[in-house]
Design goal:
This protein has 280 residues and is α+β, with helices and mostly antiparallel strands. 45% of the residues lie in helices and 19% in strands. It contains 9 helices and 10 strands. The chain has helices spanning 6-15, 17-27, 48-54, 156-166, 171-191, 198-210, 217-241, 249-253, 258-279; strands spanning 64-67, 72-75, 85-92, 100-102, 105-108, 114-126, 129-132, 136-143, 149-150, 154-155. Strands 1, 3, 4, 6, 7 and 8 form a 6-stranded mixed β-sheet that branches. The radius of gyration is 27 Å and the shape is elongated. The model is unreliable at 1-44 and 147-152 (pLDDT under 50).
């Protein structure tokens, strides 16, 4: 989080005045529009301390680090007052889908590596006057997906285990199982929008995989521990970035929203693609 100094805050406030004017218009009370005649009013001047206490304060949250293709959410929940009106702006950096957003949260999915600077202003009514805060800034630094994630999403430990299997005497059977597992992943990906929870998805996937994994106990253990266990850990990490914690039963039974379903669909489609590519 970057807090602006008093002089910088004043300058930024003047520069952004035209863009945040809509906040003041939206907050203006009935009877105070520009097409109504002015009504002379006499009121005592508020003390400096009272004016300071009444001023809204924007808090754009802490600076963040993100990855290309991963959704990032900014949170203005520490701003005051709680009933303020919020306005987010992209100040600098690569292009995003929505350069401005209203509301306490601002979400975007970066498509380009770079440094993104966002500004936040809040406004609140004080009697019949709309008061706008100084701008607070937050910086998001976005990098590429780490090299440890290979093959369109399959984690490196899984690909290494597959490679070891395909270099040994079980290579032919291994390729056949990879193809069948790819079909199972594709089926789950296609049905991702229909699952109410991750537990539902997991139950169907386990049923499909159970019939394709070799019956030999040693091979079943190898597939479970060397290939599927790292894949499961990868799903947990990926979904945690989407705000869903699958490490416990509560998270696995939590209802999936559209963003969760779409990300699961992309994940399992990428697993299917990589498994099929290695089966050839």
């Amino acid at each position: 989080m970057t807090l602006m100094g008093r002089n910088a805050g004043r300058a930024a406030r003047r520069a952004w005045g035209a863009r945040v004017l809509s906040l003041a218009i939206l907050l203006a009370p009935a009877g105070a529009r520009g097409d109504d005649p002015p009504t002379p009013r006499t009121r005592p001047a508020a003390s400096p301390a009272r004016r300071e206490a009444a001023a809204p304060r924007a808090d754009a949250g802490d600076d963040q680090i993100g990855l290309v293709g991963r959704r990032i959410t900014l949170n203005a929940g520490s701003s005051t007052p709680r009933d303020a009106t919020f306005k987010w702006f992209l100040l600098s950096g690569p292009k995003v889908d929505q350069s401005t957003q209203d509301g306490c949260y601002y979400s975007f999915t970066p498509t380009t590596v770079g440094t993104y600077r966002f500004g936040l202003v809040v406004a609140a009514c004080r009697g019949e006057v709309a008061v706008i805060s100084d701008i607070d800034e937050v910086v998001v630094t976005v990098g590429e997906v780490p090299a440890g994630v290979l093959g369109g999403g399959v984690p490196a430990p899984t690909t290494a285990a597959i490679d070891r299997m395909l270099q040994g005497p079980g290579a032919a059977a291994g390729r056949a199982t990879l193809e069948q597992a790819a079909v199972a992943f594709e089926s789950v990906a296609a049905r991702a929008p229909l699952y109410a929870s991750f537990s539902d998805l997991s139950a169907e996937l386990m049923r499909r995989l159970d019939v394709v994994i070799p019956a030999d106990p040693n091979w079943r253990r190898y597939w479970s521990e060397a290939i599927f266990a790292p894949l499961t850990d990868h799903v947990v990490v990926e979904m945690r970035r989407e705000g869903l914690d699958l490490s416990g039963p509560q998270g696995r039974d939590q209802p999936l929203d559209k963003a969760h379903q779409e990300h699961l669909q992309r994940l399992f489609a990428s697993y299917a693609q990589e498994f099929r590519a290695r089966a050839r």
